[in-house]
Design brief:
elongated, 2 strands, mainly alpha
Length: 154
C-alpha cells in the first residue's frame, strides 16, 4: 500500500472527521464562553470588588515607575499596555484574569459533559432490552452431541 493511499484511508476514516468537527465546535464554544466571561462575569466581579484585574501590574524598572508617576500627576490613565511600552512589568492581573477564565471555562465544560452524559443515560434507559440471542453454532452442535449420547445410553 502506497503512502498516498494510506493517507487517503486515514483521512477518510470517520474518526478524523469526528475530531475535525469536535475541534470546530470546541472553538466556537470557547468563543461563546470567553464572551460570557469577559462581557458578563468579569464586569460583575469588577463591581463587587471595584477591581480591574487586566491593568494590575508590578513595575520592574524605574522607567515604568517614573512614567506611571508622571501620568498620575497629569491625571492621565497609565494602564498595562502603556507600562509595557516603557519597560518590563510583571502583569499579575492578566494572570489572575486568565486563571479565572480557565476556572469558569472548565466549569462550563463540566456542566455540558454532565448534561450530555445524563441525556445519554436517559436515552439508553428508554431503549427496550434486546431479545436474548439464540444459541451459537457451537452450542447447537454440543446440544446435538449431548442428545445423541443421551439417546445412545438408553
Amino acid at each position: 500500500m502506497g503512502f498516498i493511499s494510506e493517507f487517503r484511508d486515514f483521512a477518510l476514516k470517520g474518526n478524523v472527521l469526528d475530531l475535525a468537527v469536535g475541534v470546530i465546535i470546541g472553538g466556537a464554544f470557547g468563543t461563546i464562553v470567553n464572551s460570557m466571561i469577559a462581557d458578563v462575569i468579569m464586569p460583575v466581579v469588577g463591581i463587587a470588588g471595584n477591581v480591574d484585574f487586566s491593568n494590575a501590574y508590578i513595575a520592574l524598572s524605574e522607567k515604568v515607575t517614573a512614567a506611571a508617576d508622571a501620568a498620575a500627576k497629569a491625571g492621565a490613565p497609565f494602564g498595562l499596555a502603556d507600562a509595557k511600552k516603557v519597560g518590563p512589568v510583571l502583569a499579575y492581573g492578566n494572570f489572575i484574569t486568565v486563571t479565572i477564565n480557565f476556572v469558569i471555562l472548565a466549569f462550563c465544560i463540566f456542566i455540558v459533559v454532565k448534561l450530555f452524559n445524563t441525556a445519554r443515560k436517559r436515552m439508553e434507559a428508554e431503549k427496550p432490552a434486546a431479545a436474548p440471542a439464540g444459541p451459537t453454532a457451537d452450542q447447537k452442535l454440543l446440544t446435538e452431541i449431548r442428545d445423541l449420547l443421551a439417546a445412545g445410553r438408553r
